[in-house]
Design brief:
The protein is α+β, with helices and mostly antiparallel strands. The protein folds into 3 domains: 113 residues, P-loop containing nucleotide triphosphate hydrolases (Rossmann fold, 3-Layer(aba) Sandwich); 118 residues, Elongation Factor Tu (Ef-tu), domain 3 (Beta Barrel); 144 residues, Elongation Factor Tu (Ef-tu), domain 3, CATH 2.40.30.10. Helices cover 15% and strands 31% of the residues. The protein contains 7 helices and 20 strands. The longest helix has 17 residues.
């Protein structure tokens, strides 16, 4: 979770009404200690981890906090549930939840979610928008090719009547209009599931619900001019700024056994593997990368370094220029971290995680199971590599 940028966690301790005895304080403390120690061991700060005791079936402590004069018997599950019928036939032990009221700062689940500290929006960063859906209008008054795109602004500020660069197409487009979510809700309400492509009828409400700009975190509908049909797809990136994301080209070697690749079709990444992966990840491993809404077949071209998460030590491949020896093969097992070079099968837009979290983090899967979290790293320049070799 930390590799994906998560910094605050609320742990919901559910089904406490089914413990023995019901609402057992000892069982709550056991879960809190075990889960809390695990989250702290992987890097979470204790002040950013909170625990909320609840009962999902009866709804206790979900929306409203537990009142001082209330008891477990005062909150019953829905009448249509099987548990309600069982409780009517059999009398169960009520239990004692007075300890919940004695816990310092123990709000309900909804209140705990509302208490999350909102990080500052990255408004001053270069513009990055991810296309989440492509809509096709039934009519348009513009002479230019017009597309309706549902996009998510991940950083920067998207402004009306501005020019953006589309990747991987590499073309410039004009943002004709930005529409707020009322138009999106109206469109989703009338969208038919049978049609493969979505349709939208522009109307007079568009001018009333248009926005001058969209901030990071917003999901808006954009009328884009200058893009031909099929030129922009889901997962494409609209960007603007002094720097642009890296556009990786499709590699012809992905279907072969050749591992040599350059930076134009590969990227440097740090991966964090799951605990129970089998087989481990090594050179030539074929995986699926899920990143900013797209799925791409990739290959681990080379495992460059095994990173020890508990210390600063690492294991690297030693390369000698004079004597040609067999390279040492590094194996990334479960619960480990490594620096790898990943080769992509098709064109993909990525950016280092420290510059854009949404374009710099993804998930690696194999046979439908998640095997690792992937974080894109900054490529080393040739000058840096020369300095390292001299050392």
């Amino acid at each position: 979770m930390r590799a994906m940028g998560v910094r605050q966690v609320v742990v919901v301790v559910n089904k406490l009404d089914k413990t023995t005895p019901p609402w057992s304080y000892e069982r709550y403390q056991q879960i809190k200690e075990e889960v809390g120690n695990f989250l702290i061991s992987i890097g979470f700060k204790p002040k950013n981890v909170r625990f909320v005791p609840v009962s999902g079936l009866s709804g206790a402590n979900l929306v409203d906090p537990i009142l001082p004069d209330s008891s477990p018997s005062s909150i019953q599950p829905p009448k249509e549930s099987e548990d309600f019928q069982i409780r009517e036939e059999e009398e169960e032990e009520e239990g004692d939840w007075s300890w919940i009221r004695e816990i310092e700062d123990c709000p309900s689940l909804i209140q705990s979610i509302d208490q999350f500290r909102i990080p500052p929006r990255p408004c001053r960063f270069p513009l990055r928008c991810v296309v989440t859906e492509v809509l096709h209008p039934s009519s348009s008054s513009s002479s230019q090719p017009t597309n309706y795109l549902m996009i998510q602004v991940v950083q920067g500020v998207l402004r009306k009547q501005s020019t953006v660069l589309g990747l991987p197409s590499g073309s410039l487009y004009n943002i004709q209009n930005i529409l707020q979510d009322e138009i999106i809700s109206s469109f989703n309400h009338h969208k038919t599931s049978s049609s493969s492509s979505s349709s939208l009828n522009p109307n007079s409400r568009i001018s009333q619900l248009s926005l001058p700009f969209a901030l990071p975190g917003s999901v808006v509908l954009v009328i884009l001019e200058g893009a031909e049909e099929g030129e922009i797809g889901i997962g494409d990136v609209l960007c603007r700024g002094p720097t642009t994301p890296k556009l990786l080209q499709s590699s012809p070697q992905i279907s072969s056994f050749a591992f040599d690749c350059d930076s134009s079709c590969s990227f440097l990444a740090r991966i964090f593997t799951m605990e129970d992966i089998s087989p481990p990840i090594t050179d030539g491993a074929n995986l699926q990368l899920h990143i900013h809404g797209v799925e791409v077949c990739v290959r681990v071209a080379e495992v460059l370094e095994i990173v020890d998460k508990s210390s600063s030590s690492s294991t690297t491949k030693k390369k000698k220029k004079k004597k040609k020896k067999r390279k040492r093969v590094l194996v990334v097992r479960g619960g480990a971290s490594a620096i790898v070079r990943i080769l992509v099968e098709q064109a993909l837009v990525v950016e280092p995680f420290d510059k854009c979290k949404s374009l710099g983090s993804g998930v690696l899967r194999r046979s439908g199971q998640t095997v690792a979290v992937c974080v894109v790293l900054e490529e080393e320049s040739e000058g840096d590599e020369d300095v390292e070799e001299k050392r």
